[in-house]
Amino acid sequence: MKYIMFRQQQCGMTKLIPVIFPNDFVHKDVADALQQTVLKDSEIHSAGFISPLNLLPEGRSETLNVAADPDTDERVIKMNDYGAAWQ
Predict the structure, then answer these.
(1) Which DSSP string corresponds to 57-75?
(2) Total domain count for the chain?
(3) What range does the domain containing 30 cover?
(4) Neighbours of 66 (CB within 10 A)
(5) Residue 58: CB partners within 8 Å, gap ≥ 6?
(6) Is position 87 within any domain?
(7) pLDDT (tens digit, 9 = 90+) per residue, 17-36?
(8) CA separation for the pair 73, 87 (Å, rounded)
(9) Cα distance between residue 20 and residue 23, in whole Å
(10) Is the dihedral of CA 26, 1, 39, 68 positive or negative?
């Protein structure tokens, strides 16, 4: 699977928003579509690949020219529903 980690500023804090999607999609296409709609005010923090078995981020997106941030991305992806997306 692929993922993109988006970054938004809200109330003086940084929020990281992970989006995980199938390998059939292109990182840039997903990022462009989301940044034109629901994530208009976001920037791309990182992107890469993730195994659904262990949720360990790795690699990079060639189309976005950005790499995974394994330590931060893993924490945010695994704990997103528990509030770990705020920094």
Answers:
(1) EESEETTTTEE--HHHHHH
(2) 1
(3) 2-82
(4) 18
(5) 48, 49, 50, 68, 70
(6) no
(7) 999 999 999 999 999 999 99
(8) 12
(9) 10
(10) negative
β-pairing, 43-50 vs 13-21, is: unpaired
Between CA 82 and CA 48 the distance in angstroms is 23
- For residue 24, is it within any domain? yes
Phi, psi of 20 (to 5 degrees): -110, 135
Q: Which residues are 47's β-sheet partners?
A: 4
Predicted TM-score of the model (pTM): 0.90
CA quadruple 46, 34, 55, 15: dihedral, nearest 10: 60
> Would 36 be classed as within a structural domain?
yes
Decide: 1 and 49 in contact? Cβ < 8 Å: yes
Mean pLDDT score, 7-26: 93
36 token code pair: 């034109």
